[in-house]
Amino acid sequence: MDPVTIVLSAVVILLLTYVYNNQKQNSKNFPPGPKPLPIIGNLHMIDKNKPINTCFEMSKKYGPVFCLHLGLLKMVVLSGYDTIKDALINHAEEFSDRPVAPITFKLVKDNGILSANGENWKVMRRFTISTLRDFGMGRKSLENKIIEEAACLTQAIKSYGGKPFDNLTVINAAVANIIVALLLNRRFEYDDPDFLKLVYLVTNNIRLMGKPLALLYNFFPSVMDWLPGVHQTVIENLRTLHNFIRATFRKQKKELDVNDQRNLIDAFLAKQLEGKPESTLYYHNDNLTALIADLFGAGMDTTTTTLRWGFLLMMKYPDIQKKVQNEIERVVGSAQPRVEHRIQMPYTDAVLHEIQRFGDILPGSAPHSTSQDVTFRGYFIPKGTLVLPFLASALRDAAYFEKPDEFYPEHFLTSEGQFKKNEAFIPFSMGKRSCAGQILAKMELFLFFTALLQNFTLQAPPGAQLDLSPELGATNAPQPYDTCAIPRSKNMFFLDFQQHNCI
């Protein structure tokens, strides 16, 4: 068949599928939404630079449960904290699945933890949480590793001598070393070429997956397979990452001692040798590859991005930065900040929460899909429907946050200056698919943030304009910016870097 015939055949098939799906939808009480065009659905209505604005506007018009057509895919959007909680907590089982993402499915299939479903997902999630705890998540041993890494990060930043620098690479490397410690039981120097390549593969993919061509691949995979573009780069980056992971655990398998398991990979490999039915069914190499890729990406990017928002917001609001520094001096002094100090530092705690809320790292959460037919808030949603819990609508819900569009730490403070929780603060999502590593992330954010503000005052370069609009990507990262980190004291507690194995 010639290319023209192939394209025409594909168009006809897509049109027939569209008509069938549209008729099926109209026959049931499906959530409302804008009328779709043939083939492209509502893609022409989505703000390409700020897609979350489209969801906010649509929720105002159609209510907290509405539908968007992304090509031939129907996506139900859940907007507002009350709606999201109702779905993910009160209807947890019905909304617990993940949809197939064509751009990663070829390599990942139903493996790992992020994209998996059914019993495989349950087994991998249980294994991940229990093993991360075994190797220190939430414990003093891991806290000490983070403190040591904060020392190395402090040293790296100090080397710039207060001159402008882009903090992405050093923060990425520091945060990545924490998840690497859990997965591989080692750390890399920040200039290690293999390490930098590994970090680049993950961060580059997260940026590229938010680009229009990568998103279009998920809606029209059979057509986009024929075309060049960033979607092809995403697939190749993922393949390279998987190859690196496989080479790593093959090497570890040769050195494995089941009685002396050093890290999560060792623990997984030990499961393979137990000889139980689940050893073959779940603890196979494809699952290990996908799981490590999931944990490395999730464990690095969101924490790095949150810290970078923290840098930017402290530069933007120096008065808030000074209040945090004053609290650190009052509570910690020149000692090492530790997790136990957090309860005595309500203002710093409130600022960290507000950085996460305002930065809104995952505005749409990771998509869900319905595991069965469900009637939700009067609407019928069939099994297998793509569902987006719109986390940004919870984090900026005016019913729960006084100034939802402003950076306002008082959202988390009482009138007496004590820290207060806010139930609509759900940056890690909620329910069965909530972030498995949130304990680790909270520990990292507090220890890195307080160590850096204890040692430096963060300032914008002279004449720089600080832009608080996010960069387009799979996560909401800040636009590229430079920082001037001015040392605060000659008596910084991280002065002896050699004891932390940074050099």
Strand order across the largest sheet = 1-2-6-3
Query: How far apart are the termini?
Result: 62 Å
Q: How many helical elements?
A: 18
Strand portion = 5-15%
Low-pLDDT runs of 5+ residues are 1-12, 23-27, 494-499
Provide the descriptors you would attach to this structure in a database record.
503 residues, alpha+beta, 4-stranded mixed sheet, two-stranded antiparallel ribbon, 18 helices, 10 strands, globular, disordered N terminus
Question: Could you walk me through the main structural features you see in this protein, from its secondary elements to its overall organization?
Answer:
The protein is an alpha+beta fold. It is built from 18 helices and ten strands. The chain has helices at 3-26, 51-62, 81-90, 102-108, 118-134, 140-158, 168-184, 193-208, 212-219, 221-224, 230-255, 264-272, 277-281, 285-316, 318-331, 346-359, 391-395, 438-455, and strands at residues 65-70, 73-79, 368-369, 374-376, 379-381, 386-390, 456-459, 470-471, 477-478, 484-487. The strands form four sheets. It has a four-stranded mixed sheet with strand order 1-2-6-3. Strands 4-5 form a two-stranded antiparallel sheet. A two-stranded antiparallel ribbon has the order 7-10. The model is unreliable at 1-12, 23-27 and 494-499 (pLDDT under 50).
